[in-house]
Amino acid sequence: MAGKTVFVTGGAGYIGSHCCVELLEAGYNVVAVDNFANSVEDDGVATALKRVEKITGKPVTFYKCDLLDRERVMKIFDQHKIDCVIHFAALKAVGESMQLPLQYYKNNLIGTINLLEAMKSTNCFDLVFSSSCCVYGDPEFLPITEEHPTGNVTNVYGRTKYFIEEMLKDLSKSDPKWNIISLRYFNPVGAHPSGLIGEDPTKEVQNVMPFIASVALGKKPHVTIFGNDYNTPDGTGVRDYIHIMDLASGHVAALKKLQTTKDLQYKVRINVPNTIGQLTVFVFQFLLKC
Ligand code: NAD
Fold first, then answer.
1. Taking Cα atoms as reference points, which of 27, 29, 11 lies closest to residue 19?
2. pTM
């Protein structure tokens, strides 16, 4: 895989920056873009990616670029020989998406279409897409599997992911050259062991782990626990989490799979909930099933 170039959208964000570490350490070159909608900018420079360079001792080629700027995306694809893409860039706040549906549909759907067009025009057909467990909506059975029906989505953000998945399915049927894996994440948490990068959003935090971190940092007064009558040992809610570095290495595994198996067309994988060492299980399943 050494020498292959990966285009990482949303590379300055939480999952994107951790994934860049794993990609560089696996020998890939990284070209990353971000518009800093939810990541820290220092005069056009991505703070998290500077730290990624420090961790790995390797350079990241970075462009401040909005995926809605179709011409600029095309230009970057023309400037580099991109072998494959990991598409993280999206707006992702469930509550906000209900208030600003058009902004979410525009950013997530049009941004993805612009990206896919740039890929197609430069004969790049290998894509790992950041999907979400949101595509399932309220589960019909647990634990959820890849075969669980999707589409019964309860919020706008989740619907953008569902619509993109459907679009990717159609695309892969239209031309067998497309080789796409959608990864439906459940609750990534944690940080790189160096402590140099972590979850550092610029929008108001909503997810439980960054919220707890804000309280620990004295930025918020307290954590409120909602619900006390769930069927759990103490009645409060229980969720499964996946460590960010496991998720990052799962992306590298998915990318390697795309490059060694050219007729995948469209595959979906999840990290299995309610297990320990989830992504290890996930990667194993992934390699077995494909
Ligand atoms: P994040 O907000 O930290 O990272 C996303 C990055 O994309 C941000 O840096 C943002 O500035 C950038 N971005 C957004 N719109 C853009 C655009 N139009 N052009 C260029 N850059 C743009 O979020 P994250 O937690 O790293 O999530 C990454 C992906 O994983 C997202 O697609 C998200 O929907 C998905 N996901 C995240 C979680 C989670 O809990 N973190 C769970 C499931 C799925």
1. 11
2. 0.93
Q: What is the dihedral of CA 126, 182, 45, 67, to 10 degrees?
A: 80
Q: Shortest CA distance to 83 belongs to which of 250, 252, 266, 255?
A: 255
Query: What's the Cα-to-Cα distance from 121 to each of 8, 71, 74, 78, 82, rounded to whole Å?
Result: 17, 12, 8, 9, 11
Q: Which of 12-26, 104-118, 140-154 has the lowest mean pLDDT?
A: 140-154
pLDDT tens for each residue of 56-97: 999 999 999 999 999 999 999 999 999 999 999 999 999 999
Q: Is 35 in the pocket of ligand 1 (CB under 6 A)?
A: yes
DSSP codes of every residue in 157-212? HHHHHHHHHHHHHHHHHH-TT-EEEEEEE--EE---TTSS-----SSPP-SHHHHH
Residue 260 φ then ψ, to 5°: -95, -20
Q: Which tokens go with 5?
A: 């170039």
d(CA 123, CA 84): 10
Mutation probe of ligand 1 site: the residue of 39, 88, 134 with most atoms within 8 A of C-beta: 88
Amino acid at 218: G
The pick from 8, 22, 34 for probing ligand 1's pocket by mutation, whose C-beta has the most ligand atoms within 8 angstroms, reads 34
CB 124 within 8 A of CB 85: yes
Cβ–Cβ under 8 Å, residues 31 and 80: yes
Query: What is the phi/psi pair of residue 132, to 5°?
Result: -150, 155
Confidence at 209, pLDDT banded by 50, 70, 90: confident
CA-based torsion, 208, 55, 36, 163: positive or negative: negative
